[in-house]
Specification:
Blueprint (H helix, E strand, L loop, with lengths): L1 E5 L7 E3 L19 E8 L2 E8 L3 H22 L6 H10 L4 E2 L2 H16 L9 H6 L15 H10 L6 E4 L2 E4 L12 H15 L5 E5 L2 E6 L7 E5 L7 E6 L2 E9 L4 E4 L2 E4 L13 E8 L2 H14 L4 H7 L4 E6 L4 E3 L1 H4 L3 E2 L7 E5 L3
Parallel strand pairs: 17-19
Antiparallel strand pairs: 1-19, 2-10, 3-4, 4-8, 5-7, 6-7, 8-9, 9-12, 10-11, 11-18, 12-15, 13-14, 15-16, 16-17
Helix pairs in contact: 1-6, 3-7, 6-7, 7-8
Length: 359
């Protein structure tokens, strides 16, 4: 491993700069561009921002309806605790039997299996019981305290995994009643991919679908690339860094600020390490750029769990070449490809370590 060095309760979230005026870099307050179209909607428990370029009002409105339909369908199918296809499947698996699923759910679960394998099970959607034990199967954050250690140990020793599922002929079968599926680190990305497909089916080639800060951008903003901001990882907010997208890219971030509770001076967040059963330590956030939103979503979680010492070889195994990780000491770790693209907006620039796994 070749490492070279150059010379902070907050959050790091990726946002489309052209969609939220408060974080635009020099794009607010100017004349309205006739071919830019931006709309907000609420789906999958978050604000969705759709930015389009080069379409008229009628076709843009149709496009937003298509995106909303795709995301609402994903919410109903794959919500971890509200009644739907996933909860019905989990009930069946818990009873040691299989269940019929839609073609869309079967395809999503196959992809989740592939990504879980590639991640060495650090992305593991089968640990839904553990997520529920921690209290994160609720629209309201848990208040603490953490669950009893023996309950955590029992679930870890059961070792639920995606490889125990058999998905074929419209059915999902499994022999392990410890498996409970939670697609929270994957469903948003998968749905964003489907939303982009819906836009392309309507002939739209220049767009951003931004799901609560995680997004996929295609095409460009006129003659300019889409410019994406990464918010300052500090309570005062602001822009930490920015990048410009190239053609078709997804930008996803996992952070310890998204869902958490504080107890006796310690933060317990929702990104659980499947190996220990506890929230992953040593990392504040991970941002991933990749062509497929589902892969970027899963990888951001897996690399967060891997942490500063293990993320680089795992990223290579997952086929992820663009990563930025901020550790608990506010140091920034980046892959060389990511480092060539990131522009730090906050000053002074943070201490940065470029990790070249190929070197």
């Amino acid at each position: 491993m070749k490492v070279s060095a150059q010379r902070r309760r907050g959050f790091v979230a990726v946002v489309a700069l052209l969609s939220i005026c408060a974080v635009l870099l020099g794009a607010c307050g100017g004349p309205k561009e006739e071919t830019a179209y931006k709309r907000q909607l609420f789906a999958m428990g978050t604000v969705i921002e759709v930015s389009l370029w080069g379409v008229d009002e009628a076709r843009a409105a149709e496009a937003v309806r298509a995106v909303e339909a795709v995301l609402n369908d994903a919410h109903v199918r794959w919500h971890a605790w509200e009644p739907g296809e996933l909860t019905r499947l989990n009930a069946a698996l818990g009873e040691g039997r299989g269940a019929e699923v839609s073609a869309e759910t079967a395809a999503a679960l196959r992809r989740a299996q592939e990504l879980a394998t590639a991640s060495g099970q650090l992305f593991n959607p089968a640990i839904g019981r553990l997520v529920g034990l921690w209290g994160f199967h609720s629209s309201e954050p848990p208040l603490g305290p953490p669950p009893p250690r023996d309950a955590i140990v029992a679930l870890i020793e059961a070792a639920p995994g995606m490889d125990g599922l058999r998905i074929e002929d419209g059915r999902v079968e499994g022999d392990d009643p410890a498996v409970q599926l939670d697609l929270g680190a994957f469903a948003k990305g998968y749905a964003v991919d489907r939303a982009i497909e819906a836009l392309r089916a309507l002939g739209i080639d220049n767009a951003i679908v931004n799901a609560g800060g995680d997004l996929r951008a295609i095409g460009s903003h006129g003659e300019r690339p889409w410019r994406i901001g990464i918010r300052q990882p500090a309570s005062q907010g602001g822009i930490f860094a920015s990048i410009e997208t190239h053609g078709d890219e997804s930008v996803f971030t996992s952070g310890n600020y998204e869902r958490y509770f504080d107890h006796e001076g310690r933060r317990y967040h929702h990104i659980l390490d499947p190996r220990t059963g506890y929230p992953a330590q040593h990392t504040l956030s991970v941002t991933v750029i990749h062509g497929e939103a589902a892969a970027a979503d899963a990888a951001a979680t897996a690399l967060f769990v891997a942490g500063p010492g293990e993320w680089a070889p795992l990223a290579r195994r997952m086929g992820i070449s663009q990563v930025m990780l901020i550790d608990a000491d506010m140091k920034v770790y980046m892959s060389p490809e990511m480092a060539r693209r990131v522009r730090f907006e906050a000053q002074p620039a943070p201490e940065t370590i470029i990790v070249d796994e190929a070197g």
